[in-house]
Amino acid sequence: MLIKLTGGKVYDxxxxxNGKVMDxxxxxxxxxxRPHEGEKINQEYDLRGKVVMAGAIDMHTHIGGxxxxxxxxxxxxDHRTDPVAHTEHCRAGCGHAAPSTxxxxxxxxEMGYTAGFEPAMMPVNARQTHLEMGDTPIIxxxxxxMLGSDDFFLRMLTAKQDQNAINDYVAWTMHASQAIGIKVxxxxxxxxxxxNQRALDLDELNSHYQVSPRDVLKALSRAVHExxxxxxxxxxxxxxxxxxxxxxxxxxxxxxxxxxxHLTHIQFHSYGTEGDRKFSSxxxxxxxxxxxxxxxxxxVGQILFGQTVTxxxxxxxxxxxxxxxxxxxxxxxxxxxxxxxxxxxxxxxDQNFVNxxxxxxxxxxxxxxxxxxxxxxxxxxxxxAPFTSYPHLIRLLMDKSFRNDMFTxxxxxxxxMSTLTSIDREYSLYEIAIMTRAGAAKLVGLHDRxxxxxxxxxxxxxxxxxxxxxxxxxxPDYVFKDGELVVRNGQVVKVTWGxxxxxxxxxxxxxxxxxxxxxxxxxxxNMENFKVRDDEIAEGGRGKVxxxxxxxxxxxxx
Amino acid sequence: xxxxxxxxxxxxxxxxxxxxxxxxxxxxxxxxTTAAILLPSGKxxxxxxxxxxIAGDDAGNIVFKNSDGKLDYIGSxxxxxxxxxEGEAGAYLGFQMRSGNITVHxxxxxxxxxxxxxxxxxxxxxxxxxLAAAIVGxxxxxxxxxxxxxxxxxxxVGDQMRRGILLIEGNVGSYCASRMxxxxxxxxxxxxxxxxxxxxxxxxxxxxTPEMHATLQDCGTHTxxxxxxxxxxxxxxxxxxxxxxxxxxxRYAGDIANDGKGEILVLQ
Lengths: 558, 268
What we know:
The complex is a heterodimer. By secondary structure, chain A is an alpha/beta fold. Chain A has one domain: Metal-dependent hydrolases (TIM Barrel), CATH 3.20.20.140. Helix content of chain A is 33%, strand content 23%. In chain A, strand 18 and strand 19 form a beta hairpin. In chain A, helix 6 packs across helix 8. Chain B is mainly β. In chain B, 9% of the residues lie in helices and 33% in strands. Chain B has a 13-stranded mixed beta sheet. A two-stranded parallel ribbon of chain B has the order 2-7. A two-stranded antiparallel ribbon of chain B has the order 3-4. In chain B, strand 3 and strand 4 form a beta hairpin. The longest helix of chain B has 10 residues. Chains A and B meet through loops of A and loops of B.
C-alpha cells in the first residue's frame, strides 16, 4: 500500500524543513523515498495549501496509573457533566479533567496528537498503568518510572553504595516496569512526609535515611546518563507551589553537576516572594537560567482557567494544598511504602490573584526561554488544565494581541505584577513544531517519531493554515497514525491501537540477588510478579512494545 | 403564546437525560434548534423530536405530557419559569435547581430535589428514595427552596440535606434525615426505622413518635414560639401543612453520636 501526500507545506524541524512544499510517501506505515516512475500509488491526498507536521507528542501527561483512577472515582461530577455519546467508530465515554481511557485516546487523536507519556508510573503500579494505557486507543504511549522516594533506593544511598549498583537498580526498574524514562518526584520528600517532615529543601536531610534531595538527584541523573537512556532524569523539584521556590529551582539546576536533567512543570516552581502579597513571578530568572544551562530542559505546566483536578505523586505538597481544593475533597495516600499520591480537585480563576499570576508566569517562561528545543508545551494534564486546551495555549503563544486581550481580563493586582505585555515574541509554526514534535521526540528518545524523514513512523498531522491558531490546531484535516488515516476533519474515522515505547538498558543481572531478598522480606508481591512482561502489554493484539535504542551508552563508572 | 409542550411519543428501555429542556436553555431558540437538541440516553444521544412531539412556543412554561419514569434530570439547574410534568418523572428531578416552579402530577424517581438551592417543587404523587439527598460524589443534598410531596417518600429522605424546607404529607421510609446537616423536614405520616441516623443539625417535624435509636435523647415537652412563626410561613403553601396550629412539641436531640445539634419535634 503506497500513499502519497501531495504538495503540503511541510514543517519538519528535525531536518530543518521550514514550510517547504513537498510530497511525502508512505508505505506500510513508514515514510519512504520517492517511488520509482511507474510504481502504482494506491491513494493520494491533495494537501496543497495545507500545513503538514509530524504527529504531536505530549511528553508529560497523566493518562494512566492509580492517581488518575482515584481522580475519576473522586469526581463523578467531572464525568456526569461531560458525557460523550457512542458513534459509528468510537465507544461512549465521559470526563473533562480526567476522561475515560477511550475518550482520552480519541480526543488526543482528534487534536493531531499521536503519542503521550505518563510521567508518574510507580513501578509497583506499572501493570495497572500499562493496562490503562493499553486501553487508550490510537496514540502511542510510554511511562517514566518513579524512583527517588522508594525504600530500596534510599537504603542504597544511606549505605553509600557505589554508582554502578545504583545504575543496575535503575536499569532493572526500567526493565521491570517497561519504562522509557526515570522520574523523581519531590526527591526524597515523599518518603520524608511519612517521617512527619512537611517540607524538604534541596539540602535538607530526610530524617530517616539521612540523605538530601541533592544526593538523590545526583545519583539518579548520573545513572540515567551512564545507562545511555535518551530521556534525561525527569525532575519534579522540591517545594512545588511554594512562594519563593524559584531559589530551590535555580539550585536544583546545578544539583546534577552537569548531567542532563529535565525539570517538569517548571511554572509551578518559578515563584518569588516580592510584592504586597509575597507572591511574584520568578519567570525572568528561571528563563535566564534555562538559557544559560544547556544541560537543562523543561516543560511549562501552563495553567488555564477552569475546573480541573491535580493528581501528583507529591503527597507532601498535595497535603499542604488540600485545603485549597474545589470542590472540597481530596485523597492523600501512601502507595506500598514506595511513593505516595495526592489528588486534589482545583478550579483556577482569572479573578484570583495567585491563579492569574500563575497563568502569566507560565506564558512568561514560554516566551523568555530562547531555545524551543529545550522547552516543551504542556499543561501537566490535568494539573494545570486538561490537555484539550492545548489549541488555546498554542494561540496564546502565537498571537500577541490575543494574549494581551486575555491578559486585560485578569485580576488587576496580578496584572500589575506581570511584565507579560512587554514581551513581543510570537511563536512561529516552525517553533511550535519543534516544541510539540521534533524536540519532544528527541527528548523522550523516540528515534523514529516526531519527524518526517525517510524511515520514520508515518504519524502525520495535516492542518489548514488559519489566522485563528486555536481553531487550526483544534481540528486537523487529517491525522495519520502509522500510515493509517485515523482522523478526518477533527473526527475519528478509524480506531487503531498504538504501541508502548520503552528502553531496555543493559545491566548486571546479579542485582536480582539483593532484590530477591528484599522482595521476599518486605514486599507485598513476589519479585518475578513485579515485572511487567512484553506479552502483557501486547495481550489481545491491542498493543506492542517498541524498544527504543539506548544510544550513547557510557562506560561503567570507576 | 401557549406553553411549550413535549409529549413523549416513544417508550425506551434506556433512560433519557432531559436536562437540556429548561426554560432558560430554550428561551429564544427556534423550533428547529429545539428539535435538534441531542439528549444523552445511555451511550447514545437522541434528538428531541425523536423522543417528543413538540407543540407551543412559550419556553418560560414547559409541559411534559405522557411522561414516564425514564425522563431524568427534569428541570436540572433551572433558574426561572415553570415546568409541569403530567405523568411520572425519572431520577434527579430539579437537580441543582436555582429558582422557578416544578409541578409533577405523578410519582418521581430517586434523588428528586438533590442539590436544589432555590425555587419550589410540588410532587402530587410519591417521591422515590434519596429525596433531597446528596448524590454520589456530592457532600450536600438540598441547599435551599421548598419541596412539597403530597404522597409518600422512600428511604434516605433528606440525607446530607443542608438547607430548605421539605414537607411530606404521607409516610417516609428508613433513615429519614440521616446525616442531615441543616434545614427543615416535616412528615405528617409515619417514618421508618433509623430516623435521624448521624443527624448533625436541622429540624425534623413529626406527628407520631417514631422508634428511636440510643443516641437520640428525649428533652421533654415544650411550647416553642418559633413554631408559630414557621407555621405562619407555611400558611401560604398548598396542602395540609398550611393547617397545622399547635406549637406544643416533644423534643428529641441528636444524633449525639454526631454533634447532637439536630432536633426531632413531635407535635402533641
